[in-house]
Design goal:
Elements (H helix, E strand, L loop, with lengths): L18 E9 L5 E9 L5 E6 L7 H12 L3 E5 L3 H4 L10 H5 L4 H17 L4 E7 L1 H9 L8 E5 L23 E8 L5 H14 L3 E10 L11 H18 L1
Parallel strand pairs: 3-4, 3-5, 5-6, 6-7, 7-8
Antiparallel strand pairs: 1-2, 2-4
Length: about 250
């Protein structure tokens, strides 16, 4: 499990912020319909974020995170991955998400990202960023090579290496068309310092503007946990994400 279903984003709610939200059904170019959740700032914004969840897909945590971005003046839309295999309905903690993750494809994920990007552009967003977590972190970086015209791609504790025969962000660095921010966990048992070093070298060799930050002692999914133990890492990662968006919007 990447996070407790009852967890909340470790971000202060802006009291009195005027935001609205919508539960959406988006449709990708292959005709797939999938669930999404959008947060809207009170004033129109030319910057927006596509949120790519962890392996569990669209859950409360990411709906709340979309609202936190909206409170700070950004259009935000969080997407689900499993429209092709699980439909549009809400799911409980018994949902066998890994069975559905195994049926996703890089092409399908990027088709759904494209639909979310198009949704934001229809709302007047000119600078679109992807922000992803775990499985979504990897796919956020891959989106920079997906031809979406992104302004930047942020990934929290994503796997940059090839997996199950599918090229990873390190392999596709030469195709990336947007700056990269990587926020990695120093105490991640699967994503090692060697993986991160290889990713950073690939980005540098490809001439991709990037920053890779490793939080010493922080575990995988540190941003998604209830424990206050990782509050400093979470606060710093959130600050860097907002600064990255402001820099590249």
């Amino acid at each position: 499990m990447c996070f407790d279903l009852g967890s909340e984003p470790p971000i202060p709610v802006i009291s009195g912020a005027a935001v609205s939200h919508d539960a959406l059904t988006l449709e990708s170019a292959d005709g797939t319909q999938f669930a999404a959740f959008a947060g809207h700032p009170d004033e129109p914004s030319d910057a927006g974020v596509v949120l790519l969840p962890d392996v569990r897909g669209l859950y409360h945590f990411y709906e709340e995170l979309a609202l936190r971005f909206a409170e700070r003046g950004y259009e935000a839309v969080a997407i689900d991955y499993f429209g092709r295999t699980a439909g549009l309905s809400k799911r409980d903690e018994e949902f066998p998400y890994m069975e559905h993750v195994a049926q996703t494809t890089p092409e399908g994920v990027q088709a759904d990202v494209a639909a979310a990007v198009a949704y934001l552009r229809e709302r007047g967003v000119r600078s679109v960023f992807t922000v992803g977590f775990c499985y979504g972190g990897r796919n956020s970086w891959l989106a920079a090579a997906g031809g979406h015209g992104l302004a930047g791609a942020v990934g929290f504790y994503g796997m940059p290496a090839a997996r199950d025969g599918s090229p990873g962000p390190s392999d596709r660095a030469g195709e990336m068309e947007a700056p990269i921010l990587a926020l990695q966990a120093g105490d991640d048992h699967n994503i090692t310092a060697e993986h991160n070093a290889a990713f950073e070298q690939a980005l540098a060799s490809a001439g991709v503007e990037h920053e890779l930050v490793t939080y010493d002692g922080a575990p995988h999914s540190f941003f998604d946990r209830k424990q206050e133990e990782f509050a400093d890492a979470s606060e710093d990662a959130w600050r860097r994400t907002l600064e990255f968006i402001e820099k590249h919007r």
